[in-house]
User: What shape does this take?
Amino acid sequence: MRIILLILSLFIVNLPAADRDTIAQISPEMTKALNKGLKYLASQQKPDGSWSAQYGKNVGETSLCLMAFMAQGHLPGEGEYGKVVGKGVHWVLQQAKPSGLIQFTEQSYQAAVMYGHALTTLMLSEAWGQTRRKDVGKVLRNAVKLILQVQGPKGGWGYKSKPQDGDTSVCVMQVIALKSAQDAGIYVPEATIKKALTFIKTRFNEKKKMFGYSNTNIDPKLIGSSAAGTCIMIICGEQDKKFTNESLIPLHDIMKKDLDKSQCAHKAYFMYYASVASFLSGSETYKPWAKMLDEYLLKKQEAKGSWGHLYKTAFCVLAGSLPYQYLPVYQK
Assistant: This one.
């Protein structure tokens, strides 16, 4: 942990003053709320290291919970929740298949296999990037190979581990996983990412400056897909501002008008992607977003520390923890 804090402090010193201010922006109230969220997640971990919710044990939700802890500096064996993270990572590694797919095969509901696989690949990328554990690296490399193998003909991915071109949500998650792995030192062909971004751009609605779920139509219930599309464009360094700066505007407007008054069906998902996109866009964009996010999260947190289901709580912790910059994929 001391090494991580030292690296982080050196990273902060070399940032412009405005960005240093952004990193230090988490309020005492929000810090308390985030810690309470982690305490709740820790209390829900199963003895084997997994988390189990509405769909039973699954690698995706477990990985999301693990990233919530990692976002605040807790690594396997390090930090207050080092044992929690260690057990969770161990359970995830046990679910790796010879094909590279990471899946809990006894899960009753298996429709979103590749979404869970991508979340797990992302988590392992972040864990390996900070620990360089050989067992994590081995599973990670195979997981990345599988994602590369099942990219669809147009550049997308589906929910099953075979070549398909699916919706914006599942495609974005694969690219984030690949970018994280790439940043951690795993080889990922630039052509794969470029092809995926080109595919995601076909979902962009020029008039509304938003990304659609399965085409250019903007479904108010699925606006999380627009946040996801904007987020991955920014993470990948897209230069056309209509896909980045301009597409952030409607996301901020949704929060300004009150997220609860929108028809958004996946609010935690929306806040996570919009938060990452805003944070990576710099202080001027992030500060007003952070104010709205903090007010919403503080208002919505339940007495036990959760924000609803486990995955929602994990997404909320991740969204609120960005200024800590412990996870490499979210660093500027």
User: Anything to note?
Assistant: The beta strands are 52-53, 56-57, 204-205, 210-211. Residues 33-189+323-332 form a domain with the Glycosyltransferase fold (CATH 1.50.10.20). The CA atoms of residues 62 and 208 lie 35 Å apart.
